[in-house]
Amino acid sequence: MPRGLTLRALVPNAITSAALCSGLTGIRFAIGGDFHSAVLAVLLAGFLDGIDGRVARLMKAQSRFGAELDSLSDAIAFGVGPALILYLWSLSAVPRFGWFAALALAVACALRLARFNASIDLPGQPHKSAGFMTGVPAPVGAGLAFLPLYLWFASGIEWMRAPFVVGPWALLIAFLMISNLPTLGWGALRPRRAIRLEVIALAGMLTVALMTEPWFTLVGVCALYLALMPAGLWRYRRIMRQRAGAGQSKPEPQPAP
């Protein structure tokens, strides 16, 4: 076994460390009352978390250390961070129920990551083999948990900050993170060749929308993801039925004479 990390492994693990620091800095902004910067810090952590694994694969620098660091970073940046930000922004108005909702979000994120680590080496995972994920991923869960914040930033409607709105929403996202629902992953998103130019154009327009109207755009992205969840479940069940039908149609092997 080599001593310490290889030089190639420093880059993806440094990106993971940056994501962790970004999520923690979001808590610092929330303590100071700067909730815009707090949300942006967590979103930056999500972006960094999305590229660290790809950088590791491109550089052939995957390691068990990197996988463990990534999970610990996700638990803090997308579990503890959003939970404390929501508590400081809204849920502290009802400390008992609010803290319970915040804890549920943080604990659900940790449980999801623990389940992922426990099953990462297990063969024959039905959701993964079909290109789906089990439950809502931690970064996506953090982004969805901030939906009341996006609406509050965009519209200024004060009741969006009410604990009776934010608390149940946080509990719902916590449930979705630890649920067994098959959710769309990158492996399941394969646009047909005929519309790939349109997909590229849509990505460019989405980037401009995030730059000009970030909060309304994030509301739209969250709404689209939630709307696609039933479609993802239907698609997963269809793939499973097709596989079951293909398995039943195979002729049984005949015994040797």
Short description:
The chain crosses the membrane at residues 72-91, 97-118, 130-153, 159-181, 216-234. The chain has 257 residues and is mainly alpha-helical.
Write down the CATH topology: Four Helix Bundle (Hemerythrin (Met), subunit A)
Q: What letter string, H or E per element, gives the SSE order? A: HHHHHEHHHEHH
Based on secondary structure, the structural category is mainly alpha
User: Overall pLDDT, averaged?
Assistant: 85
How far from one another are the termini?
51 Å
Largest sheet: 2 strands, antiparallel
SS field, number of helical segments: 10
Q: Which CATH class?
A: Mainly Alpha
* Stretches with pLDDT under 50, minimum 5 residues: none
What is the count of β-strands?
A: 2
Q: Provide the number of structural domains.
A: 1
Task: Estimate the strand proportion.
Answer: under 5%
Please give the order of strands in the largest beta sheet.
Answer: 1-2
Radius of gyration from the CA trace? Answer: 21 Å
Shape: globular
Helix content: over 70%
Query: Which architecture per CATH?
Result: Up-down Bundle
Family: Belongs to the CDP-alcohol phosphatidyltransferase class-I family.
Membrane topology: Multi-pass membrane protein
Keywords: Lipid biosynthesis, Lipid metabolism, Membrane, Phospholipid biosynthesis, Phospholipid metabolism, Transferase, Transmembrane, Transmembrane helix
Pfam family, one: CDP-OH_P_transf
